[in-house]
TrEMBL record:
Chain ranges of the CCHC-type domain: 274-289
Gene3D superfamilies registered for this protein in UniProt: Zinc finger, CCHC-type
The protein, known as: CCHC-type domain-containing protein
Organism annotation: Rubroshorea leprosula
Pfam families: Retrotran_gag_2, zf-CCHC
GO molecular function, one term: nucleic acid binding
Alphabetic keyword roster: Metal-binding, Zinc, Zinc-finger
Keyword Cell membrane attached: no
Keyword Zinc-finger: yes
Amino acid sequence: MASQTHFVDGHLITRPPYFDGTNYQYWKNKMSIRLEANSYEMWDCIARGPYKVLVRDKNNKLVPKDPASYDDADRKRLQINAQAKNALFCALHPSEYDRISACESAKEMWDKLQVAYEGTNEVKKSKISMLVKKYELFKMKSDEDIKDMFTRFTKITNELKLFDRVLPKEDKVRKIPRSLPKSWCSIKTTIEEAHDLSAMTVDMLQGKLFTPFKSSSKDESDSDEEDDEEFVLLAQKFKRLLRKDKLKNQGQQKKNYKSSKGKGESSKKDEIICYKCKKVGHIKFECPNNDEKSLKAKKKKKAMVATWSYSEDSSSSKEESGMEAHICLMANVSWQMMTQMREVSRKN
C-alpha cells in the first residue's frame, strides 16, 4: 500500500485568525490581509479611521451628528465600522477582548492592541533600530544553506515592513551577495557579471544562487561515492600486497636458513692444520717454525698476493671478498707444492 502524505490543516476562510496574546506580528499581518479580503472599506476604516458621523455646531466645532439626521452615506460608514469591530472581536481571546471592549471604533481597537504589543513610538523606534542593525550585519551562517539564509533574511525585511520601514528592492538584492562567505566568491562574481542586479528581484537572485548550490551538493555526493569506491579498491590492493610480502618473507627466511647451514659446513672445511707443527689456523709454508729460506719465500708470496688484491676494486661485496680469500688459499697451496718439489729434486 502506498504511503499517505499528511498535511497540516490550514485556517478556514470564513474564520478570522485567532489572537491569544502571543506572536502579535504574525496575527497582525494575517488579520490585515483578512480584513482587506472581506472588504477593503473595512481595512480603510481601520487604517484611515475612525469613522464617526460628525457635524459642525453653531460655534463651528465638530460634534456627533444626531442619529435621527443620518442619511444613507452616514449609515453605510457606521455599518463598515461595525463590521470591522465585529471581525476584531471574533478574532480575540477573552483576555484580549477585555483590553479593547470599551473602544467605540475599529481604529481605536486596532491602535490599542498595537501599543500593547509593539509599544509606544519610542519603543517602536528602538525595535526598528535593532532590526536595521540585524539587516546591516546580516551574514550567511556556516551551518545553513541558501534556503535557510533567504528565509532568515526575508523575516528581517518583513518585520521592518510591519514597522513601516520599507527597504528598496535594489538595496536588498545587492545586500545578499555581500552576505555570502568567501567559498561563494566565484558564483557571486559570475552572477554579478552576467546579470544586472538593479533589474533583479530577491526571488530571482535566490533562484540563481540555489541552482549552483544544488548542483554542487550533487557533485559532492557523487564525489563521496567515488571516494568510497576508490578506498575499497585501495584496501583490496593493499591486502594483496601484504599477502605477497608475507609469502616473500617466508621464502627468504627458508633461503637464509639453508645459506647459513651451508656456510657452517664450509667453515668447518676451511679449518686448516699445519703439517709441521700440527697446529690449526695456518699451513706448513706459513708455520713460524720454518727456517730462513722459508721465511723469504713467505714474504715473496705475500707480495704477490698484495699485488693481486690491489688490482681488485676496493668497494667489492662480501661475496667478492670471499672469492679473493679462496684464490689466495689456492695460491698458498700451489707455492707450497712447488717448494716441496724443489727440495726433492735437490736431494736426488
